[in-house]
Known about the structure:
There is one protein chain. By secondary structure, the chain is α/β, with parallel strands linked by helices. It folds into 2 domains: 1-50; 54-235, Peptidoglycan recognition protein-like (Lysozyme-like, 3-Layer(aba) Sandwich), CATH 3.40.80. The protein contains 6 helices and 8 strands. The chain has helices spanning 3-49, 106-119, 172-188, 199-203, 209-213, 215-232, and strands at 63-64, 72-73, 93-98, 128-130, 136-138, 156-161, 196-198, 234-235. The strands form 2 sheets. A 6-stranded mixed β-sheet has the order 2-5-4-6-3-7, with helices on both faces. It has a two-stranded antiparallel sheet with strand order 1-8. Strand 4 and strand 5 (136-138) form a beta hairpin. Helix 3 crosses helix 6. The chain is globular, with a radius of gyration of 25 Å. The termini are far apart. 32% of the residues are buried. This is N-acetylmuramoyl-L-alanine amidase. One of its GO terms (molecular function) is N-acetylmuramoyl-L-alanine amidase activity. The chain crosses the membrane at residues 21-40. It catalyses: Hydrolyzes the link between N-acetylmuramoyl residues and L-amino acid residues in certain cell-wall glycopeptides.
Amino acid sequence: MAPTYRKRYKKRRTRKEQLQMRILMILIAVILLGSILGIIHKVKQERAQQTVSDSSWDITDKKYVDQRPELDVELLPVNEYSRPGLALKKVRGIVVHYTANPGTTAIQNRNYFAGLEQSHQTKASSHFVIGLDGEIVQCIPCNEIAYASNNRNSDTIAIECCIPDDTGKFNDSTYQSLIQLTTWLIGRYDLGIEDVIRHYDVTGKNCPKYFVEHESAWEDFHDDLAAYIEKNGVDKE
């Protein structure tokens, strides 16, 4: 092999090796980034689900709310897209969601779930939908699963909340009804306040949006649940 050719060959090989090294470094960086994001999400999940040290939340050991809020029971027809009719044998949590369609009413969202029987667009539903005026529509019995919370469908009650705008923040009427409904469910199923979670805590989805993007608001919501039980609860025997 002539010296000039050997130099060119060596130069091409060096460039190829450099390109391969850059590609390898990019792949490693992508893998590391994915791992870091996965760890961060796992830590947040564990933090949200861990045993709560705040003594004010221990109120559920002493009191419970036995007054059921007013419900508009509009059960979905049994179908494979929104009400499969499968038994929910044990309730271990309550999952809060938001509708992600500003300005719509509780009954409109309920009817959307019902319409999936014909449209086959997706599988989705919720046990309850809370509207902008605080109205609570029950779509599925609490002893059946809803298609709302992925791998927690089998042991949780789902609550969808309507929103007035793109911020995802609940108005006061919706918020107060959410507190009343959630505290009643906590008492009914002998749960703790730490058992009230977000859809985000199950899958990492930005739902309910405002409570995900404003962690302090989510913490305030838990504190408001405790305060409501303290004020309106009855003593456990």
